[in-house]
UniProtKB/TrEMBL annotation, chain A:
It comes from the Bacteria. This is Asp23/Gls24 family envelope stress response protein.
From TrEMBL, chain B:
This is Asp23/Gls24 family envelope stress response protein. It comes from Kutzneria albida DSM 43870. It holds the Pfam family Asp23. Belongs to the asp23 family.
Amino acid sequence: MTEPDTGEDLATAVRAVLAEVGGLHPAVAEDAPITKVPGVDEPWITATADRLVVRVVADAEAMPVLPKLLLARQALTSAFELDVELRLVDLVDRPPDE
Amino acid sequence: MTTALGGAVEVAEGVVVESRAIARLTATAARSVDGVVSLEPTLLGFVADLGRQLRDVITGRDVADPVDGIQVSAEPAAVRLGVALSVGGRPAREVSVEVSRTVRDNVQHNLGVRVDEVRVTVVDVALIPPEARVPQQQVAAVAP
């Protein structure tokens, strides 16, 4: 198993996929349960050589959210050719990165 | 697994919904039912709510609905939900049935999570509904 890759390029690419799908956001904002931690730039992403775990929050516009999650996972799987796990950790009233 | 904020449900291959999200939607759905006065927090929930309010003051930002009074028992493919609330203005049984139906429909439709059970506990009945309460200052102002 490789060291977790939480590089900026990967995070930027995943953010772009989420933005395209809409209503899903990285679970890193102050309201989200996952917050920035020292030494880890992107705690909402865990990546190894063959697996990518992405933790997101959904806003009201994403409801019903399951189709969005399926779409986002499919897009991430195609983009990175990895086994992708998408975890919805919380719901928010508004996009957390606004 | 039985916990308010732990556990998760896999709703499709590689797609997982964590209990916190389920609890959040459950709370919102329960509060939308006419006759629900409030969800009833545990002592721990009460302390957490104070922390949230303090953070709001510091950051100047509102947070989403707290999930006090909601219990999520997450199993691999479904959940059992517990809702503790106080009611007012409508018969408790009527409110409970509607809360159960509304929560189940919302969670299943919006999150794709199968709900096996919604257990509603009415912990208090407000004899005077909140909208009928008149602040004491107003009463004093209109008194002869």
